[in-house]
Structures are given as C-alpha cells and as structure tokens.
Amino acid sequence: MHIRFKGNYDLVHAHKIDSFLFLKWFSKKVKVVATAHEAPYNRDKWGKIAKLFFKFNEKQFLSFNGIKTAISKPLCDFYKREYNVDIKFIANGVNLSEERMPDTAMSFWPKELQKGSSFVFFAARRIMGTKGLHTMLEAYKRINYAGNIFVAGEMDNFPAYITKIKKISQGLNVFFLGYVHPLPALMSLIDKCEYFVFPSETEGMSIMLLEVASSGKPIIASDIPENTQVFEAEDVLYFKSKDVNDLSQKLLWIENNKTEFESKGGNAKQTVATKFTWGEITRAYCEIYNDALSKASV
Predict the structure, then answer these.
(1) Which of 121, 160, 168, 291 could join 193 via S-S bond, C-beta 3.0 to 4.6 A?
(2) Residue 120 · residue 251 · CB < 8 Å
(3) Domain residues of the chain, as ranges?
(4) Domain 2-93+278-296 in this protein, CATH class
C-alpha cells in the first residue's frame, strides 16, 4: 500500500516469491526488479494453502511486466522450459572477510565431549526432511562410523522428523547443537571441523554452501543441480542425492583419500573468491538497475 500510494521511489527490488503478490499492482507506478530464490512449494515445511499461495505468486512473477531474475540457474532453465519465460540468472554471494566468534562458538560445544575433539559437521537453519540429514546419518551408520558428528539447526518445527532422526542416530556419536548463531560463531565451528556434509534434496542457491566453501573446508554434497551449478567436481565431492549407498561409498573414499579431498576445499574457496563475492553480485545488479532507470527516463 505504501509503495502504491505514498512511496516516491524510482525503483523497487522484490525478493522471494513470498513478496510477489502485488508485483503487477505496484509495477504500474515504479520500475520493478523481482528476484526468485527458489520454488518454495517444493519444501516439506509448507502446508497445502501456503503452497497454493506460492504457486499463485509465481504466476504473478512470470507474467508481470518488469525485470525478472533468479539466484538459481536450474530455476531459470525450468521457467524457460515450462513457461517460455526468460529469467536472468544472478547468483548469490558471500563476504570473504566474515568475522569469527570463537568464544561464542564454544558455548555450543557439547559438554560431554572434550574440547578440540575432531568432528564432521552438518548445519541448517531448520532441520527438516528436504535437508537430507536422514540420508547422511544412515550412510554413516552403514559404514560403522566411529567419529563425532555435529548437527546444528533448529529442531522444534517438525517433531515427527526429529523423532526419526534421533532413532537413526542411535549407535552413532551424534551431538545436536541447536541453532548456532550468529553467523561468525557458526563460521568458527566450521573452521574447526574435518569436513562439511551438505545432503540437501532441494535448494535455491545455498548461502550455507557458499559460506562453508569460503572457509576452505572440504565439502561433500548432494548432486542436485542447484549445487552442481555452483561448483565443479574439482571443488566439491558429490554423491547421488538421496542415495545412502553412494554416500556411504563416498564417505569411505574420504577416509582413504584425505589429501585429495582437502585440496577440493582450497579449490572451492578460490571459486567463491572469483565468482561469488557480494562485490561481483552487486555489479551485476547495478547494471540492471541502471538499465531500468535509463529506459524510464527516455
């Protein structure tokens, strides 16, 4: 309402499908750039009504007369293939100089585990099925993994899934840390881990994946298109998404090829530095803004 009737703006940039309900309405007054981050109706955290809302908003996005971008190349390809709509791909980015908070990080350290012990790491904002934690734990169980596994993320939203996770984790040295925040504290824990596991079944373009890669820590990740669009096989060790057997085999490979695996972490860090910093992303958006505003003044 403010944008439509009171706001005096030259350009508005709307992010995520959640905010696209009134795109056509306020694009009558100002130039609008809209950026899709993912297709949220693919997430298991949303109910039927929410998914219908996202589907409706997606239609507004695809049909409004403005500049359309997406942070996911596979999403751009999907919209072109299914709806013949061209969407400009502009990636997500991270700050390479992210600070660290080691003291805060240690407040999340399991009290029953000696400080400085080695561990592998999984982290998400919220623990839900599409994050693939069950696949990861089942794979570690299959290879009789005896090391420590840290799991960070909120566990209050999906009780049935959390019950399933805790059942699978029996017999493993799994430590549930809760939601680790702020980001500098999370980055401090990432710095201490042996490697990071990213088994997501669906993503937009994961900031988490970029943040971990920026640390130089090696990553094993699911081979969903949203991941493989970002990093090559030289950067990240991929396994077949949702495939416990393939992941277990890759975990065994890591144990026997640690030097080669660790080198991938360095490669991924360099890829982030050259392609996915906010400086690079900002320049891409500035080009779009300038183009839109120059056309408005003609």
Answers:
(1) 121
(2) no
(3) 2-93+278-296, 102-275
(4) alpha beta
